[in-house]
Amino acid sequence: MKLKPTLYVTWLRRYKRLKYLGKRHNVFLSGPAIRQQWRDVWMQEFPYPEHKNTKDRFSIVNIVPWVICYSYVIFIMNIMRRVIEEKSNGSKELLRMMGMTDFTYWASTFMNYFIYAFIIMFIVTILYKVPMKASTAFLKHMDFFLLFIVLLIFIASLILFCMALSIFFYRANFATVALIIIYIPSCTLLMTNFFMIDSETSYYPLSVASKLGICLLPQGALLTAFHIISSYEASGEGVGWNNITEFSLIPDINVAMILATMLVSCGIYIVFIWYFDAVCPWQPGVPKPFYFFLT
Description:
Blueprint (H helix, E strand, L loop, with lengths): L6 E4 H8 L3 H7 L3 H6 L2 E4 L19 H9 L1 H16 L2 H7 L4 H28 L14 H22 L6 H25 L2 H4 L5 H8 L2 H18 L19 H25 L16
Antiparallel strand pairs: 1-2
Helix pairs in contact: 4-12, 5-8, 5-9, 7-8, 8-12, 8-13, 9-12, 11-12, 12-13
């Protein structure tokens, strides 16, 4: 590596900068011979290896969560439509009369879509990790199993989000429109305002609570995770189990915190479904009092 030109300074300037001890100062001034010996001091910058500058560089990996979020629009619309139709045509109430518990109903609905999404996400993970044209993988350095876990937790959170939102609607058309209004603009605004351009002035100054609050939304968590993943891919290291807790690009949040927040959001959605499905007055059947969990 080519170094910068050597910097030449006199012994007096060297003395002033490094603040030699008084004893050595006396030695320097003790005689002409010693003074001539220490007259010239040469300094040069310590060499350092070349590195890739990934600051303020938009990577194509940042588009991955955007593509995934938009590709599941039809999927979440089907979830919303099915849950609302079962509520409006009385199928859900009929299952209750036959002895099916609410937990069994919601768990079966979740597993019905999660198994389907499990297969799709496994195929997506393979496509991102297998070398394509020119023998280059899209996410070459990231751990395969960790990528699969991130996508699975995202889709689980997304399914629970749709199920929780369906509680407040009785007609499938209104519910689908409301879902699209909430889901697509939120994904687009988060991407354009925080992660696409000039994230150092828009996203990094946010507090840790605000960043984790964004991760409570399924699309927000996926955008944040791939924002960190893209920096690791650009550096050639990749996200793995050995550096999942490291603070690299964002100084106060890492991939482990994002995954933990996504799991917490799943728990919040489950509690939300359990409570509001029982107390909402526009649900089929007799609603329970708001304090039913205390009795």
